[in-house]
Specification:
The complex is a heterodimer of chains A (249) and B (229). With 249 residues, chain A is of the alpha+beta class. Helix content of chain A is 35%, strand content 24%. In chain A, the strands form two sheets. An eight-stranded antiparallel sheet of chain A has the order 7-6-9-10-2-3-4-8. Chain A has a two-stranded antiparallel ribbon with strand order 1-5. Chain B has twelve helices and no strands. Chain B has 229 residues and is mainly α. Chain B is globular, with a radius of gyration of 21 Å. Classes of the chains: A alpha+beta (249), B mainly alpha (229). Chains A and B meet through α2, α4, α5, α6 and α7 of A and α2, α4, α5, α6 and α10 of B.
C-alpha cells in the first residue's frame, strides 16, 4: 500500500504547472489546493513555477504614482474605539492599532488647522502625506549626521533624560530627527514652540506620536530654545500647558 | 513557525523577538534613549530587504508599503495590464494587491519565494478573476482569436521579450516554440489550459503537460544562467 501522499501526488502533479499560472478550472484548482495543504513537495513545485513565471513578467518600469495615491487613500486605518473621556499618556513601547488611529486623527486635525494657527516667524512645513513623510525621514536622517548642522538634545522636563533630537541646518531647514515622546491618546497633539525673547512662538504641530517632522526656522534669528507642549488636536496659538520637553539652543 | 518571528506586536506577534532579530541596532546618536524603532526603520527603508519592509508593514508602517510599491508596483501594474488589456482594470488590480499586502502581510512567506513573485502571483490571480467575470467575457472572447493569430508564429516580436533582462531572454529561447506558446496563452492570455487546448486544436492532457514541462525547463535554463530560484 503506497502512502496517501504518493497517491495524491500522482493525480495532482500534472496540474501543478497550469495551477501556478491560474489556468485551471475552479473545480480542479480546488482539488490542487486541497492537496497542497498536506503536501510540501507539490507546494514547493508550485512556488518554483510561480517564481519562474514571475521572472517573465518581472519588468514593468516605474510604479505609477497616481495608483499610489489611490492605495494610500484606500488602506484601512482601523476605526477609533470610543475616545476615553480624559486624555492620558500611554507608553510608546506599546505600539498598537491605537497609535495609527491617534496619528491619523492628529495628522488630519493638524492638516485642517494648519492655515489657522498663528506661526510668527516660523513657517509650518508639516508634511502629512506618508510618501512625503518618508522623504522627510530620509532628509531628517541626512540632517542628523550633517556635521555642519546644529544638533540639539531634546530632554524631558520631568526627568531630564534625553527623549529626542533636533537638527537645524544652516539654511533654516530643521527636523525633529527622532523622539521617544509617549504616544498621546485622545484628541491631543504635541506642539513645537520656539522661545524668542521669552515669548512662545508656534513652530509646528507634531502629531500624537512624533517620529520625524520637518519645520523651518529663521537661520539669522535662532530662538533661545525649542519647547514641546501637549495641546488639543489642531493646536493652539499660545501654550495651554507646561512644556514636556525642551531643547536649549 | 518561521514566519512568526517576522511580525511585530501590532499584528499580535512577538515584538521582542522582532526587535532583536530583525531591526538594526540604533546608531550612536540615539544611544542614550534607545530612540524609536519606527524612525530607525525609516532611515534604512531604501536599502532594507523586501522581507524587512514586510515586517515593517506588519507594524502598520506606511512608508514601508510606499517603498514596496515603489519597488514592485510597476511590475504588478504591467502584468495586470498585460493580462487584462485595460489600464483602468489594471489600476484596480494593482490597488487591490497592495491594499491586501497592507491588510494581510503575514500571507507573504519569505521561505516560499520572493516578495515580487508573491505580489505578481496575487496580481495575476486577481486579474484572472476579473477576466473570467461576466463583464469581461465578451472582450476576452474577442481577444482569443487575436491571441492565436499572433502567438507562436511571431514570438520574437512579443512584448514579453522587450522587458526581460538578458539572462531571462537567454533562458526563454531554450523553450520549444510550443512550450512558449502554451505558457504565454495561459499566463499572459489568461486562458485555462482547456481553452488553450481548444484554441490550438490539441488534446487537453498534452497542453497541461506542456505547461508544466515548459516551466520546469525554463527554471533549469534560468538556473544555468545564474538565476537562483
Amino acid at each position: 500500500v503506497s502512502p496517501p501522499e504518493a497517491d495524491g501526488c500522482d493525480a495532482i502533479q500534472d496540474l501543478l504547472g497550469a495551477y501556478a499560472l491560474d489556468s485551471l478550472d475552479p473545480d480542479e484548482a480546488a482539488l490542487v489546493e486541497k492537496h497542497l495543504e498536506t503536501c510540501p513537495r507539490c507546494q514547493q513545485e508550485v512556488d518554483q513555477h510561480r517564481e519562474t513565471v514571475g521572472l517573465l513578467a518581472a519588468a514593468g518600469g516605474t510604479a505609477p504614482e497616481p495608483i499610489w495615491d489611490r492605495i494610500a487613500g484606500a488602506i484601512e486605518r482601523p476605526g477609533p474605539p470610543e475616545a476615553p473621556p480624559v486624555p492620558r499618556l500611554v507608553p510608546a513601547a506599546r505600539p498598537g492599532r491605537w497609535r495609527r488611529v491617534i496619528q491619523a486623527v492628529a495628522v488630519a486635525a493638524a492638516a485642517a488647522v494648519i492655515g489657522l494657527v498663528a506661526v510668527g516667524t516660523a513657517r509650518i512645513v508639516h508634511l502629512n502625506h506618508q510618501v512625503h513623510q518618508l522623504q522627510t525621514a530620509n532628509t531628517a536622517a541626512a540632517a542628523a549626521i550633517n556635521p555642519s548642522a546644529l544638533h540639539l538634545t531634546l530632554a524631558s522636563t520631568a526627568t531630564g533624560r534625553q527623549i529626542g533630537g533636533l537638527a537645524v541646518l544652516k539654511s533654516g531647514e530643521s527636523y525633529l530627527v527622532w523622539s521617544a515622546l509617549p504616544t498621546l491618546v485622545s484628541a491631543h497633539t504635541y506642539q513645537l514652540w520656539s522661545m524668542i525673547d521669552g515669548r512662545f512662538v508656534s513652530v509646528s504641530l507634531l502629531g500624537a506620536h512624533p517620529t520625524t517632522v520637518a519645520f523651518r526656522v529663521d537661520p539669522a534669528a535662532l530662538p533661545q530654545a525649542f519647547l514641546i507642549t501637549v495641546e488639543p488636536a489642531g493646536g493652539v496659538v499660545a501654550p495651554t500647558s507646561s512644556p514636556v520637553a525642551k531643547a536649549a539652543v | 513557525v518561521g514566519l512568526r518571528r517576522f511580525y511585530g506586536a501590532d499584528r499580535g506577534l512577538d515584538a521582542e523577538n522582532l526587535k532583536n532579530s530583525v531591526l538594526p541596532s540604533p546608531p550612536a546618536w540615539t544611544s542614550k534613549s534607545g530612540g524609536s524603532d519606527e524612525y530607525l526603520s525609516m532611515i534604512d527603508l531604501q536599502t532594507a530587504s523586501d522581507t524587512r519592509l514586510v515586517v515593517a508593514i506588519g507594524r502598520w508602517h506606511e512608508p514601508a508599503l510606499a517603498e514596496v510599491y515603489r519597488r514592485h508596483g510597476g511590475a504588478v501594474h504591467a502584468l495586470a495590464r498585460r493580462v487584462l488589456g485595460s489600464v483602468e482594470q489594471a489600476e484596480d488590480v494593482t490597488q487591490e494587491v497592495f491594499v491586501k499586502l497592507w491588510q494581510q502581510p503575514e500571507r507573504f512567506d519569505p521561505a516560499r519565494g520572493s516578495l515580487r513573485s508573491f505580489l505578481l502571483s496575487v496580481a495575476h490571480g486577481r486579474a484572472i478573476d476579473v477576466l473570467r467575470s461576466n463583464t469581461a467575457r465578451r472582450a476576452r472572447e474577442e481577444r482569443s482569436a487575436a491571441d492565436v493569430a499572433t502567438s507562436g508564429y511571431d514570438i520574437e516580436r512579443h512584448a514579453w521579450d522587450l522587458h526581460m533582462n538578458d539572462q531571462v531572454r537567454k533562458a526563454v529561447v531554450e523553450l520549444t516554440p510550443e512550450q512558449r506558446q502554451a505558457i504565454e496563452l495561459a499566463y499572459f492570455g489568461g486562458h485555462t489550459y482547456r481553452e488553450v487546448a481548444h484554441l490550438l486544436g490539441e488534446p487537453e492532457g498534452t497542453i497541461k503537460a506542456r505547461i508544466r514541462s515548459g516551466l520546469t525547463h525554463l527554471r533549469r535554463a534560468l538556473e544555468r544562467e545564474g538565476i537562483q530560484l
